[in-house]
Amino acid sequence: MAEHAGGAKAAGPAAAQQQAKKRVALGNLTNVAAPGGRSGCGKIAVVAAGNARLNSATSAVPVKKVSLASARNGSANRGSATKSASTRPAPAPAPVTSRHESTAQKESAPPRKVPTVVPIAVPAIVPFSSFASPGNSGDSISTDETMSTCDSMKSPDFEYIDNGDSSLLDSLQRRANENLRISDDRAVEGVKWKKDATAPMEIDNVCDVDENYEDPQLCATLASDIYMHLREAETRKRPSTDFLETIQKDVNPSMRAILIDWLVEVAEEYRLVPDTLYLTVNYIDRFLSGNEINRQRLQLLGVACMLIAAKYEEICAPQVEEFCYITDNTYFKDEVLDMEASVLNYLKFEMTAPTAKCFLRRFVRAAQVSDEDPALHLEFLANYVAELSLLEYSLLAYPPSLVAASAIFLSKFILQPTKNPWNSTLAHYTQYKPSELCDCVKALHRLHSVGPGSNLPAIREKYSQHKYKFVSKKQCPPSLPAEFFRDTTC
To answer: By CB distance 3.0 to 4.6 Å, which of 50, 133, 289, 346 could disulfide with 243?
Structure first.
C-alpha cells in the first residue's frame, strides 16, 4: 500500500512533474452519484467518472496484535510474609533472671532444636491502627457489626513447638484466624467515592452496574466519578451549533454530511475503532466553528482530522501517504501535514473530547442489566442510531450525553414498541428524565425512519451486515407514544 500511496509523488523528481500529476482539487460537492455506482473511497463528489473505488483487499490495513508480556507479581510473597507476621502470636515472656544465671544456663544447656514454627512477636511500638483493613474507611465496622478492639491482638499463651504436632498447629492457626479475621465484604459504602458528587435523582430499585470489582477495565470504584467528569467536560469541548450560518460561506450541511459519510467508509476500509470516527467529526466541527474554509479544502480537513484521531486512538494508525492515496492523490503529503498542524494549533492540542460513544458504553451496560432484550441487538442498534446522528448538523444542538441516552431510548423502543423504554436504572445512570429526552428522541426517530438518503448509504450499509445483526434493516414504529415521556413512568 505504501508503494501505491507514494507512487504518484515518486514518478518524477522535479516539482513541475509533481504539479502535473496532481489531480484537480474538488470543485463542487454534490449528492449526485457516479454513473456506475458510488465512487467509494476517493473524492467526495464525482468530478470525473474515473474515480475508482478503493479496493478493500489493498486498502485494509492489518492491525498488529501487540502481545503484552505478563509481569510477575512480586507483591504476593511480600503479602504472605506480612500476613504471617501479623497473624502469628508473640511468644510468652521468659522469667526475669540475673545476668550471671542466664549466662550459666546458656553454657550448660544443650543446643535446642530448630523449632518447626517460629512465632514472630509484634513490636510494641506499632499502633493498632496500622493493622486496620485497607478496604475499610476510618468509620467502617466489621461484618459482625462490632468495632475492632485491641483485645483481638492479644497473644495466646503457648510454648515453642519443637516437634511436628499438626493438631496444635491447626489449633493455633484457627485461633489466629478468629482473632485477626479481615472482612471480605466489598459492598462498603466507603468505596462509592460520592463525596462531592451531586445526587442525580431519588429513585428506588436501581440496579448496580458497578458491582464487578474483578475486571480492572471497568474501574468499578471510579466509574461514577469518571462519567461525572465527562459530563462536565462535554460542555467545554463542544463545537458551535450555528457555525455553518455564521462562519462558513462556502460549506453547507449537505457537504458536511457527504464528508462524514465518506469518512465512515474510510474508517471501515481501514478497520478503525468507532472512537476514531467520533473524534474525527468532533475535530472537524470544532475547527469549522472558528475557521472559514472553502469546499475544495473540506476533504483535506477531513483526512487531516482523521489522521489526528487515528494517532490518538489507534494502535497502528494509517500513514500520511495512505490518506493521500484514498483521496486519489488530490492532496500531497505536505498539504495534509500543513492542515494537521493548523487543526492542532487551533484546538490548542486539546484532543481529549467526550463523544456520544464514551457515554454510550456506560448507558448500554445500564440498559442491559435489567433488560430481557438480546444484548448485542440493543448495543448494535444504539450504535447505529448514534452514528446516524453524526450526519445531522441540527443534532449538534444536543450534548453528546443526551444523544447517547436518546439513542438508548429509541433502540429499546424499536425492539419492544409496547414496553416503556425508560426505567429507574437508566434514569439514575444517565441523569436524564424522559421529558428531557423528548426532543432529541423525536429527531433521531425522524432520522431513523426517513434515513439519510440514498446518496449517504455508508452507515446503513455498515450496519446491514451479519456481524452487526442486520440492525439497520429493523423497522421503526411510525410514532412515539406520548406517555413514554412522562417523568412519573420511571
So the answer is: 289
